[in-house]
């Protein structure tokens, strides 16, 4: 009996994802992905997706090239879909192969009640 056909797999990375796609991937456990928040640092500190890293658009590509592998699965979000699309395009142009735009960004994540972190919660 083949067990490999029965083993569930996490949802695949798509060029555009909704918040449920990312949450399912996080719930999978050890998801081997990075969540990038491209909003400015005060917005990030006010609230961000749990586990996200801050890489404001102005420093995004330089920072990502230093710290992330080009093959890493990246979920990128900003405050608007336009901000997110611009950031994702910059990452793809820089050579990142697996970039997904989180549609709806932070507002969509908060609207469905998924976990967020704040600078205060991290410092505590």
UniProtKB/TrEMBL annotation:
SUPFAM superfamilies: Rhodanese/Cell cycle control phosphatase. Residues 29-118 form the Rhodanese domain. CDD domains: RHOD. Transmembrane segments: none annotated. Pfam families: Rhodanese (PF00581). PANTHER family: FAD-DEPENDENT OXIDOREDUCTASE, PYRIDINE NUCLEOTIDE-DISULPHIDE OXIDOREDUCTASE. This is Rhodanese-like domain-containing protein. It comes from Thermoleptolyngbya sichuanensis A183. The lineage of its organism: Bacteria, Bacillati, Cyanobacteriota, Cyanophyceae, Oculatellales.
